[in-house]
Amino acid sequence: MNLTKEDKILEVKNLCTSFFTDEGEVKAVDGVDLSIEKGKTLGIVGESGSGKSITSLSILRLLQEPAGRIKEGEVIFKGEDLVKKTKKQMREIRGNNISMIFQEPMTSLNPTLTCGEQIAESIRIHQKLNKKKAWAKAVDMLKLVGIPSPEKRAKQYPFELSGGMRQRVMIAISLACNPELLIADEPTTALDVTIQAQILELIKNLQKELGTSLMIITHDLGVVAEMCDKVAVMYCGKVVEYADVKTIFTNPKHPYTIGLLNSVPKHDEDVEGDLSIIPGSVPNPFHLPEGCRFAPRCPHAKEICLTKLPHLEETFDGDKVRCWIHSEEWEKQGKAVNAHE
Amino acid sequence: MFLYIVRRIFQTIPVMIGVTLAVFLMMHLIPGDAAKIMAGENANPEQVEQMRENLGLNDPLYEQYFRFIGNAATGDLGNSIRTSRPVTQEIFDSRFWITVQLAIIGTALAVLFGLIAGIISATRKYSFADVSLMVIALFGLSMPNFWLGIMLIYLFSVNLGWLPVAGWGTWEHMILPAITLGTAGAAIIARMTRSSMLEVLDQDYIRTAYAKGVGDKLVIYKHGLRNALIPVVTVVGLQFGSLLGGAVVTETVFAVNGLGRLIIDSIRAHDFPMVQGTILVCAVLFVVVNTIVDISYRLLNKRVDLN
């Protein structure tokens, strides 16, 4: 289970990213630790506002400064801390070593540039190819992502393409310079279900073909099961569980993960029955609970959960979980405080 | 694209018909008897009637209108009452070109300074530069043309003696009128560019560009400005039109013999054919400029439907 530094392409240590608004500070990402092994896939799961997208934007330092800022922590990519890099050094990494696919293919492409130009742009910047060669490579990329008649499509504008096609173009852009790490921020959320499967299949195949490491951000547990090797479950800016994909589905340890899995409708269940839900709602980011952030919604929460924040502790089988339930203190406590059951 | 341009030009035909109709009816609706004025103060009723007959004012209105556009199509807008010279000659000999020159320089100044100020403001949101530029723009927008013109003359011509007070001929004569004319436009374009740029810089595709490793400058100009210009182009077109109107005041202040001054002088002299002709030429110019704007809009924004 213990990995040497060389096996990890990316290691995020104690990443804290905050947004400073007129109403105060929002700790969007609060002490996140993650790592991705070479050629493997890490999934980050969580509901809206859990900080998963901000984590990925922080890795590439794409936050809208000065409102959003990395307060502390390290992002070690191939042994070097990206947080300490200059703007210029970051530009050389973006699109070249680390690429990103965004959620909305409708708005993520520039409406006034042809698809070919948008792919060729990063090739020209990073590989210093001339216009003609970059264009030829852009057409090749369109072919690689399975777009029929790529020469014709390269000359078209994004509005002339369907959503699935646009996401393919987005993938072509991100893979154009053969990055070592690809971050996909909800790449299929905005697409039709049938297209979703195609896009996931495409990413998976290209990952295998090119040996790219992948970080996939999603709130869809189906995507996680399909794509990931490891999973980090996030809640309110913190990783609450970090484990192998198999463990997450067969033996989840954090009550939030269990709640998430229970709320997925199962096809073999009685369709008439109610879906199970996690009671309550995500706490106000300006007034986060003192103890465990999930405690107000947790069916197992005891006194200690409301007052003390648990650490991300390694369990007996090597996974990590942030919950008092696996500690001796919890055993000593009295009854659960939430009367949801 | 070629087809689009041809179609767009054909689309101006109904507008032109509307324009000629409006100009024609306006001249018939305003009080005052053209025949009486043209015949002179001492004319007897017979002479006025004779004049009315000569001018065709006794014919049915539609006949007069068709004669008017028929003649206008061949470049005949009648003769000026004041000078007895053909109206087209009066307009196109020099006056039209002076006003067009003034409007083009004014627009160029407005676009240049407006865009620069707008981009600086947008990229340095809420900075000292942004706030001061926007305050200056507000001033530029609020100052009436005639007042700004007089102040500029007072400062640069009377006190500093750098530029001529009035008249037309050399490039030095053009500076103050062009600034006077372009200031409001520059202010509008600056504010428009700023808000449009801010909106565009917030778009997802800007983040995509950064994620590709594109540098700040290229992101702002290639990805940002190009998209932000779409609404600005519309404003520039409208601005050019209002510059033609603004020329009336500016040309009077600077004693420039352009179209604006011609309108004023003709109205004062009750020179109906002249007023009618000048307004028609201005209106047609406005339509032409707007057609050019539409076409350039299509060049910028690929999403404008060609059908």
Automatic annotation (TrEMBL), chain A:
- Keywords annotated in UniProt: ATP-binding, Cell membrane, Membrane, Nucleotide-binding, Transport
Primary subcellular site in the record, as a coarse category:
membrane
List GO terms (cellular component aspect).
plasma membrane
> Which PROSITE patterns has this protein been placed in?
ABC_TRANSPORTER_1 (PS00211), ABC_TRANSPORTER_2 (PS50893)
Q: Which superkingdom does the taxonomy of this entry point to?
A: Bacteria
Q: Give the Gene Ontology MF terms in alphabetical order.
A: ATP binding; ATP hydrolysis activity
One Gene Ontology biological process: peptide transport
The entry's localization annotation reads:
Cell membrane
Bilayer topology term: Peripheral membrane protein
Instruction: Give the transmembrane ranges.
Output: none
Q: Which CDD domains match?
A: ABC_NikE_OppD_transporters (cd03257)
List the InterPro entries: AAA+_ATPase, ABC_Ni/Peptide_Import, ABC_transporter-like_ATP-bd, ABC_transporter-like_CS, Oligopep_ABC_C, P-loop_NTPase
Give residue ranges for domain ABC transporter.
Answer: 10-261
Q: Name one Pfam family in it.
A: oligo_HPY
> NCBIfam families of this UniProt entry?
oligo_HPY
* Family that this chain belongs to: Belongs to the ABC transporter superfamily.
Q: What is this protein called?
A: ABC transporter ATP-binding protein
Q: Which organism is it from?
A: Cytobacillus horneckiae
TrEMBL record, chain B:
| Broad class of where this protein is predominantly found | membrane
Q: Where is the ABC transmembrane type-1 domain?
A: 96-297
Q: Which GO terms describe its cellular component?
A: plasma membrane
The record lists the membrane-crossing segments as 12-30, 96-119, 131-154, 174-193, 228-254, 274-293
**Which keywords describe this protein according to UniProt?**
Cell membrane, Membrane, Transmembrane, Transmembrane helix, Transport
How the protein sits in the membrane?
Answer: Multi-pass membrane protein
Could you tell me which Pfam families the record lists for this protein?
A: BPD_transp_1, BPD_transp_1_N
Where it sits in the cell: the answer is: Cell membrane
Classification via InterPro entries: BPD_transp_1_N, MetI-like, MetI-like_sf
Instruction: Determine the domain of life of the protein's source.
Output: Bacteria
SUPFAM superfamilies per the record? MetI-like
Instruction: Report any one BP term from Gene Ontology.
Output: transmembrane transport
**Which PANTHER family does this UniProt record tie to the protein?**
DIPEPTIDE TRANSPORT SYSTEM PERMEASE PROTEIN DPPB-RELATED
Q: Which family does it belong to?
A: Belongs to the binding-protein-dependent transport system permease family.
User: Could you identify this protein by its name?
Assistant: ABC transporter permease
The scientific name of the source species is: Cytobacillus horneckiae
